[in-house]
Fold this protein.
Amino acid sequence: MALTREQIAMRVARELQDGFYVNLGIGIPTLVANCVPKGMDVMLQSENGLLGIGPYPTEVQVDADMINAGKATVTAVKGASIVSSSDSFAMIRGGHIDLTVLGAFEVDVLGNIASYMIPGRMVKGMGGAMDLVAGADNIIVTMTHASKHGESKLLNRCTLPLTGVGCIKKVVSDLAYVEIADGKFWLKERAPGVSVDQIVSLTKGELVVPDVVPEMQF
Amino acid sequence: MAGFDKVVSCYEEAMQGLEDGMTVIAGGFGLCGIPENLITEIQRRGTRELTIVSNNCGVDDFGLGLLLKDRQVKKMVSSYVGENRVFEKQMLSGELEVELTPQGTLAEKMRAGGAGIPAFYTATGYGTKVGEGKPVGVFNDRNYILEEAITGDFAIVKAWKGDRYGNLIYRHTAQNFNPMAATAGRITVAEVEEIVEPGELNPAHIHTPGIYVDRMIQGTFEKRIEQRLVREI
């Protein structure tokens, strides 16, 4: 069975470490916030200038001056700090964020990522995604392995406009955990009940398959 | 009070000198911390052919969306422009020029503009459409593109408190792009929720020193929320 959105988030959460500063993108990455292991402290960064994202506010706590990068009302945790956009992106661009998790349309064997624009469709903009992939050393991409029509999203070369080049080393898809190195995908783990053949058939880019591919445990 | 007193008495005076074809840098992220009354004043004046530099462009009936609706904008420089149908229509028809700029690069373009740095290298956008045609520099075996700074004829910002000398403090995440925008305007206009006397704000807590602010006015704000998400308990 392919992983659910929550399971993808749970798998990503295993890459968290105590004391990490983490930036989570919109969608599945946001769910990682609910999967932080007990007893572990992580500080979530929102690129509009909040280091230390808290839960959504209660009705009485709602404050128009307190939002996250998705423009939704939010609170700050104890020990948070609030800065300007340029200071926020200095954290990002300067490589101070320990882990960045974001979604993508496509990734390729060179570590390129396409995530912000599909030609012919309305262009909404890259927001902070280009800064995030250029500035972070430790990035995890979450995505479905293939489109609804069975077309692979793990390619030899991205076909859509790029968000960044040579920056992605880890992908958690609904079928597998894959690493990128030396111009190849390396299959590391498979989703429970998903066969290696299934993953191979839905991976268009060159994929290295070891003799034993462990199954993820949940 | 004269000298360093930046307070003006009305919005018309606050935006005096704004002309067709000018570049206006605006603070705000989404609808958070936008100079909403200064935007409304630009709409009232009917100034046209404007280049607006702002992370986002409001929604159809609020914020910078108002200027789009009245066809006052020639070009937008932004990082994210979703949630705006008027924008989409004008962009697809070719009426509106759009320069999509990565968010961190946009912030740094403003900061550099205000700090007298004409251009800077960044890895952001290298190898993408954003980097096309821009000079590339290699430092420590890594590729960077050269991005030019931005300055504006006007900068419009929103702060929480300001003293008469134009020293500003922002509230929570309503800070966002406002401090950089404030430095990058030839004429910088700040609207604030509360004007206090010089000396009332702790000098060490000032986000934007009055040296960057030319005019200041006290306004009342709607502070519309774009996405109201709450939890039960």
Remarks:
- The domain at 5-208 of chain A is CATH 3.40.1080.10 (Glutaconate Coenzyme A-transferase).
- Helices of chain A lie at 5-13, 28-31, 85-93, 129-135, 196-201.
- The first strand of chain A starts at residue 20 and ends at 24.
- Residues 110 and 182 of chain A are 8 Å apart (CA to CA).
